[in-house]
Task: structure prediction
Amino acid sequence: MTLQLWDFGGEDRFRFILPKYVSGSSGGIFMYDITRYSTLKNIKDWLEIFREEYTSRKQPGEALPIIMVGGKKDLEDKRSIPGYEAKKFVRTQNLYAYEECSAKTGENVELIFEELSRELLRRINMI
Result:
């Protein structure tokens, strides 16, 4: 399996580009910083844009698997968003899964891509 990744960095100046990339998407990874509360709010805004475009192009009954990822797990002592609150957000937004990782230590980084890949393969009856 080959994954093509697009990182929009959560910056407002890239919002206009997102709808063009959504149309060919098979899944999504939305990441926030566990030490900055504002980044969780930003995910809600980006999800809205993502879903609006995807919904306009999807087949009936089709749902896109989206994993929400809490980054900077290595900074647990500076956490401002409790894990239970992030998991509640995942449930209310009807996202596929939730993980936390650290790019600095590498913890759970591969797991996120493996989890999304497995789900994509499952959806096309490959596993």
The mean pLDDT is 88. Helices lie at 18-22, 38-57, 83-92, 109-123.
